[in-house]
């Protein structure tokens, strides 16, 4: 669960860098 929370926080930070797409894929894999 901590991984998902950390990923969510990383998404918001990476969204500005434009890497949210890659993180989004990882989050989806972890969610499943």
What does this structure look like?
By secondary structure, the protein is mainly alpha-helical. The protein has one domain (2-31). Helices cover 88% and strands 0% of the residues. The chain is built from two helices and no strands. Helix 1 (2-17) runs antiparallel to helix 2. The longest helix has 16 residues, at 2-17. The radius of gyration is 9 Å and the shape is flat. The mean pLDDT is 58.
Determine the oligomeric state from the structure: single chain
What is the residue-averaged pLDDT?
Answer: 58
Proportion of strand residues: under 5%
**N-to-C span:** 12 Å
Nearest-angstrom radius of gyration? 9 Å
- The run of helices and strands is HH
């Amino acid at each position: 669960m901590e991984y998902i929370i950390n990923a969510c926080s990383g998404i918001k930070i990476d969204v500005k860098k434009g890497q949210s797409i890659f993180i989004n894929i990882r989050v989806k894999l972890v969610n499943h």
